[in-house]
Amino acid sequence: MYSLLRQLLFNFPPEKVHHFSMNILRDVNRFSPVRSLLKKNFVTTDHSLEKEVFGLRFPNPVGLGAGFDKNALYLNELAALGFGFVEIGTVTPLPQPGNEEPRLFRLPKDKALINRMGFNNNGVKAIRGRLAAWRNNPKNEKLIIGGNIGKNKITANEDAWKDYEICFNELFDVADYFVVNVSSPNTPGLRELQEKDSLQKILSNLQDINSGKQKRKPLLLKIAPDLTQEQLDDIISLSAEVKLDGLVATNTTISRSGLLTNQTSVEQMGAGGLSGKPVQHRSTEVVHYIASQTNGRIPIIASGGIFTGEDAIEKFKAGASLIQVWTGFIYEGPAIAKKICKYLAAHS
Hints:
The protein is 41% helix and 16% strand. The protein contains 13 helices and 13 strands.
């Protein structure tokens, strides 16, 4: 069914179709019978899939990665589709439009996307207000929310720690956990913050704030798949030093190797992060390396090329505690979380 719908949707610009589809879902989900039907068809009720990770109880281990619902607009709808958790953002202190369109491209032959969105979002104050209103409405769904935070494009790298602090403080009461994003390739110079000294300043400051709270929130770091072994070793060392609660592995890649899509077409799409099947193997390698080097002491949310239950199990065998989908949602459709959960339940 979805394969036919996908053929139709893929005739239109990706970003416009994304908003169009989610807005329709939001409109129909306002009707109780439709909402009940969605939950009946998409939400798993298998308690064997529940997991406790960094002090939070997840109803199932299948989450939706940051970038899909940047502005926390579709939380009820995503909960009705059966996701165990949703990461909003990336959120920056000030609103920003992101890069010029077009900035999202499909590579169907590779089951992949290229994006150079550029942290387009409404800004932390607007998103905080939206999340607070959502949490205070008893009619809304219960859902674990991760806050993926970043810096504004205009903020110099030496001042980046201030942007992360602003977002952390603003969202502290409305997010269940936080992910520091320094690994997107779409903000100039951002990946330089993955170097140990820069990271230490950002993360140590956030942990200092965290420890001063009545109840601290889990703090994670999202890393790129393009890191060298030496850089991964630095991050593992720093994770222990600043007592990170987890890592998200991985973000999109800047590599274009091994693609089936015509090279000229790929070059015309331009710069951006590649996600989907082409990053699956490298993402799993990174998860396995971190898990083996830490003896599984640091929880990992695996992201990259997860489309099926088999893909999910590959990540769990590599050492992941939870998984996130994004590009898989686009290609597999709204039943992806339910299908993965069903497979996991049958093969646990």
